[in-house]
Specification:
It contains one helix and eight strands. The protein is mainly beta. The N and C termini lie far apart (about 45 Å).
């Protein structure tokens, strides 16, 4: 019984110590971050630079590829700005993102392959939460809604404009002073 009490006290004190150590994060003017994640089905690498302790510029590039009978490749470039409401370990934010995406689909057809391509330009408003595990490491989740313009490059379909396009992403961030 005494061992259980010692164990509970040790775990409790450890949690309090870790919690106190985590009360600091890297949301400060001039900070930079390198991020790795999944956004809208793409594997994305991005970076951010803090103009102020609660305002960051974002830029990133993404890629995905799928293959079965057909082959699909997707490339994306993004840029944006983010405003943090709080600079705590659980930091809520809103922001805006502009993106360009190219999607190439290679379809197996008799006599050769057909390539269908489309370019998408998007403007999204996003919101989310970033949680700091340590001063320089965080994980975040975001969702967004916006306006997209889709253009068929090869003339195989109609161009489209969509409002309400849903976007989402999960990212791990590494901060540098």
């Amino acid at each position: 019984m005494k061992i259980i009490k010692v164990f509970i006290i040790t775990v409790g004190m450890s949690l309090l110590t870790v919690g106190a150590a985590m009360a600091d994060n890297s949301l400060e003017t001039g900070a930079k971050a390198l991020s790795f994640g999944v956004a809208n089905g793409d594997i994305e690498i991005s970076g951010r630079y803090f103009l102020g302790s609660d305002l960051a510029l974002l830029a990133g590039a993404g890629f995905s590829h799928a293959s079965n009978n057909d082959s699909t490749s997707d490339y994306s470039l993004t840029a944006g700005i983010r405003k943090y409401f709080k600079k705590t370990d659980l930091a809520p934010f809103v922001g805006g993102i502009v993106s360009f995406r190219r999607n190439d689909i290679i379809v197996s057809a008799p006599g050769g392959n057909d390539v269908e391509s489309e370019k998408t330009y998007s403007i999204d408003g996003v919101g989310g939460l970033e949680y700091f595990f340590a001063k320089q490491v965080s994980v975040e989740a975001q969702v967004g809604i916006g306006l997209s313009s889709i253009h068929n490059v090869d003339g195989t379909g109609d161009d489209q404009t969509q409002f309400g396009t849903f976007s989402s992403g999960i990212t791990v961030n590494f901060y540098f002073p």
